[in-house]
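**User:**
Everyone, produce one record:

**Assistant:**
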Amino acid sequence: WVFGVGCAQGGGQPTTPAPTSCPNLSGSYRFTAESCHVWEGDPFEGLPLAAMGGYHVARDPQVIRIEQTDCSAVRFTARARLMHDDGYDVDETVSLAGGQTRRLEWSSDGFLLEYRPHDAGPRFPGAGRQTATLELRSTSEGIRYRYRFVERGLALLLIPFRDVSSAECSLSRVEGPTD
């Protein structure tokens, strides 16, 4: 099944180029609803996979494939589903150093990416600004996957608000063929 993530290149703040050496996060990882909990704010009711305009949510148990070819991009494949539909396949790539990137930090076990989703209008009327954070860290059992989506602004141009949804998931490594 295919599911993807992407941050397109576009306007934004200048960013530091991706490093030439970074940990390899490629592999197949098992997702179950029990493997996720709220990181901050409201729950996603599944695994929120980052996308150019925000996120898609994987809700059903499955194997998520992560492919990393270098330090500037990570590709996710899985299957996403809205609350009551049959699901859909998505296959995109997260650009870690694109123009939407606000912050990228690599460490010996993974990365933290903060970016501004594009083409995603505010969820509330008024002036709003959205920020997404994606963090992947290698663990002895697999991957710790964290995603947070924050919108700040003024509802009806008068009332300040901050809306946060997030998830932290422990994905266990799957060895061998997964087809």
Observations:
- Confidence is low (pLDDT under 50) at residues 1-15.
